[in-house]
Amino acid sequence: MQQIADHLGVSKFVVSKALSGKGGVNEHTKSRVIQAASQLGYFTQKNAYIKNKTAEQQMTLSPAGKQSVIVLMPNIRFQTKDSLYWGKIMEGISQELEQNGLGMVIVSESRADHFIHVLNPEGILGMIGVGQIESQLLLEVHRLGIPMVLVDHEDDLIPTDTVFANNMDTTARLCNHLIGLGHTRLHFIGDVHFSRSFRDRWGGFREALEQNGLQVPPPRNPMLAINGVDSGEFLTEEFESWIVEQRNKEDIPTALICANDFIAISVTAVLSKHGICVPEGISVTGFDNIDDSYRSQPALTTVHVPKEAMGQRAVKKLLERIQSSELAIEKILVSAELVHRESTSAPSA
């Protein structure tokens, strides 16, 4: 803590209060302390931040031990149990916990101060975080010494096990398939700052194009908007103006690689509105293989993410972490597979 204080030019007392989660330190200073602590390796040191536990206090899977797991899924960015994507992950978590005789408490709180008020560290085994979660909230869980695993999210400040689909490699395979069909003008549609998964999918797109000697255009941000449960409705103005401009310049892309199925379905609707047929005019692909992907017209070429398997794997990793806290932290990649449907074909001459 003295090193952190010297690094920032503040007192050790300020550092202590910021890291303890107590009040009396403004948010800007707390953020600087947390960032510096991460850079200086504070969170990776044994017993530096996580509260020590005696042998009698260690979490156990015995009948006399704690029997519930908190599943934290803040209700932001379509993250609800009714979601066609997140809901499937929740189903996998629930099934695996049930098989192990464990209960599940779903918490949708997104503010750290509210979450801590409802949290009883002595009554739970651990926590599984699903989707985007604020650093401050995760930091409070880490401070309390609660084992946790994150699904489809990671935080640079907090060392913890994570479970992802193999986003980068699968997107690269999808692009290589399209390039093999003869596509040379491919564009990525999605906000790379929206989530780690979107960023990894963009990375796979870029890698495939670079390896094939093709120009890598910047990603187009379609601006997702929340409009009810799992909507992801497409704000069309920016995309419409761009695609019309590209057509007027006779530089229309031959394929659009969309960051998820919602974007792909919305893109297809915009193209249809402007008389551009899919796949004859432009091939379109999605990602996630939600139920709507095969109901769309045309049926969407996409990537099947084994969502239930991700949830199940997160539970297994959490139980491993509870029983063996000294294990190396893991980033687990669950294999995803291409699903070829009617929205892609060879480019027209």
TrEMBL record:
Keyword annotations from UniProtKB, A to Z: DNA-binding, Repressor, Transcription, Transcription regulation
Domain HTH lacI-type: 1-42
Keyword Transcription regulation annotated: yes
InterPro entries cross-referenced by the UniProt entry: HTH_LacI, LacI/GalR-like_sensor, Lambda_DNA-bd_dom_sf, Peripla_BP_I
A GO molecular function held by the record: transcription cis-regulatory region binding
Protein name stated in the entry: Transcriptional regulator, LacI family
